[in-house]
Specification:
The chain has 349 residues and is α/β, with parallel strands linked by helices. It has two domains: 207 residues, Quinone Oxidoreductase, Chain A, domain 1 (Alpha-Beta Complex); 133 residues, Rossmann fold. Helices cover 29% and strands 25% of the residues. The strands form four sheets. Strands 3, 4, 5, 8, 9, 16 and 17 form a seven-stranded mixed sheet that branches. The protein has a six-stranded parallel sheet with strand order 12-11-10-13-14-15, with helices on both faces. Strand 16, helix 12 and strand 17 form a beta-alpha-beta unit.
Length: 349
Amino acid sequence: MKAVVFGGERTVEFMTFPDPTPGVGEVVLEMKASGMCGTDLKFYRLPRTAALEMVGLSSDAGPVIAGHEPCGIVAAVGPGVTERQARVGDRVMVHHYAGCQVCPHCRTGWTQLCDNELVVYGYNGHGAHAPYMKVPAYSLVPLPQSVSFEAGAAISCGTGTAYGGLLRLDTSARDTIAIVGQGPVGLSATALASAMGARVIALDIDDDRLARAREFGATDTINPKNIDAVAAINQLTRGLGADLTMDSAGSAESRLLAVRGAKKWGKVCLIGEGGSMTVDVSPDILRKQLSIIGSWTFSTVGQEECARFCAEHDIPVDALFSRRWKLDQAGEAYQWFDHQSSGKGVFLF
């Protein structure tokens, strides 16, 4: 089969791999959708030497197929896989990690926190930018019939990450939440928080993204490039600040805005990857009795719950996608994804 590998310096390479065969406890999926995530761009943009090392092109282990937002149907099952785990034809998402399945984190569905032998698909294990993908049966998450494959791909990373962060915040109808960053993850958080009954204040430095945020359920929007965003949040909340805040942008400025936009006794959730944050601890945290929470993706249980929530509340996950591509258009697709600012892409098979 032909699959996509990141080659560094903003290039992708098409390489030929054997069609996978399931071993003990494994299944092979026929891919139906494979999403493009902002994390992919970090690998796509790497210097070539670093990229070759990352994907295994310069090692005996061999190259690694890209993509960590998989969704498809079960095509084959290996020995030891029970019908309760998987049957040929099942519509499934993938929790895109493999672990030891022995440590406490693996046993509770938080495989990404594995203490022993973490594999992240698309990074150090073969990912979803290929016609077929082999994964352990325990990593499968059922996809409701009313949820499309492309929506399932989004739930397998970005949308699921937003849902996981909102659960960490215990979001409900009693809350006003300020969500900083309205890319695909932040936009998912806006739609999900609105469906949970919360009042959503959406923040972004791109007016087009803010317009989309209103379509996804935001009550108010703020562009920090134009006004004092903390003052604007305070004005919208009777001078108190937001009950909850979430940063999905991952910049030092956006994180600080999330901290300073929260009210006394408020809660802040950081889900944007990378970078750092500098705060004035006493006024920004201690003297506000602030709780700051980190949230990294979601458990297998959380991913299944997110998919059900999206189905039951008609969350417009499909609307996150601005472009849909065929796999042989991967070079053009990643060039587009590298330069656009308001959409998400997906490969459909």
